[in-house]
């Protein structure tokens, strides 16, 4: 929370009932690292949606036995999250063209790939899909 402006800091935090969370939140308030009016809700099932969302990520990471570096962890988790957002339609608002080329542009921006490299690679696929839809 050190890098966040006051308006970016959360006003509510949901955790399970582990005692360490209450102590940590209280310490953050004492150190003025979070808002004094921060509400800490310790309810067992409030985080169920969040836990379920990253459950698939845990399934994919477990077979590789974790990560060797923080950089590898960051890149892998970012990749999983971007691809899941695309699959679930959560990135649709950023897909300006509404097709596979738009998704390619989202991936290019997320991973810092040179613009149009991926877009050009999916060009023939997009054309094939358009032809298939026109026939069907």
From TrEMBL:
Pfam families: DDE_Tnp_IS240. It comes from the Bacteria. InterPro entries: DDE_dom. Residues 8-89 form the DDE domain. This is Transposase.
């Amino acid at each position: 929370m050190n890098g966040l402006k006051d308006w970016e800091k959360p006003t509510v935090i949901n955790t399970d009932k582990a005692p360490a969370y209450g102590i940590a939140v209280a310490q953050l308030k004492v150190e003025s690292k979070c808002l004094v009016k921060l509400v800490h809700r310790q309810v067992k099932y409030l985080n169920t949606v969040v836990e379920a969302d990253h459950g698939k990520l845990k399934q994919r990471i477990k077979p590789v036995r974790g990560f060797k570096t923080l950089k590898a962890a960051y890149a892998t988790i970012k990749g999983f999250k971007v691809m899941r957002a695309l699959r679930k339609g959560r990135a649709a608002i950023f897909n300006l063209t509404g097709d596979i080329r738009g998704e390619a542009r989202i991936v290019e921006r997320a991973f810092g790939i040179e613009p149009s490299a991926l877009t050009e690679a999916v060009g023939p696929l997009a054309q094939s899909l358009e032809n298939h839809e026109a026939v069907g």
